[in-house]
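Still learning. Show one?

>
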Amino acid sequence: MPYQLTMQDAKGQLSTLLYDPHTSELEDETGAPLFDAEKKEWEVPPRVSPDEPGKKSNAPNTLKIQLGLKCNYTCSYCLQSAEIEDASVSSLADANSFLANLDLWLVGAPSRIQFWGGEPFVYWAHLKKLVPPSAKNSPRQYSRC
């Protein structure tokens, strides 16, 4: 069943689109497709679980750093909100330990580093420790997720 998206432009004009999250199809109010995209069959990815974890590598292309689950927002769609009560609290000592052991865990440098939260900016002290001052001159890409 598609979602009905109602939008309002700067002049107050309303328009409606239909979005099907299962097929990623976007249609106008009459059901006409907005994009003439080629249908493509995708390979079903393998399922990941605690018993069968995903592939791990000591040479990742993207290093994803989970800062914690604290957040200063209360988004109704947040997938992590149910986990916040069970989350352990991290400290700057954790960031220091992480940096001290990074060369033992990784081979080479990832081309991209992502910081995950909760809301990563709640962990400002951690970010200042983990992102070196030279990051703006570095070829690595840093992003917040």
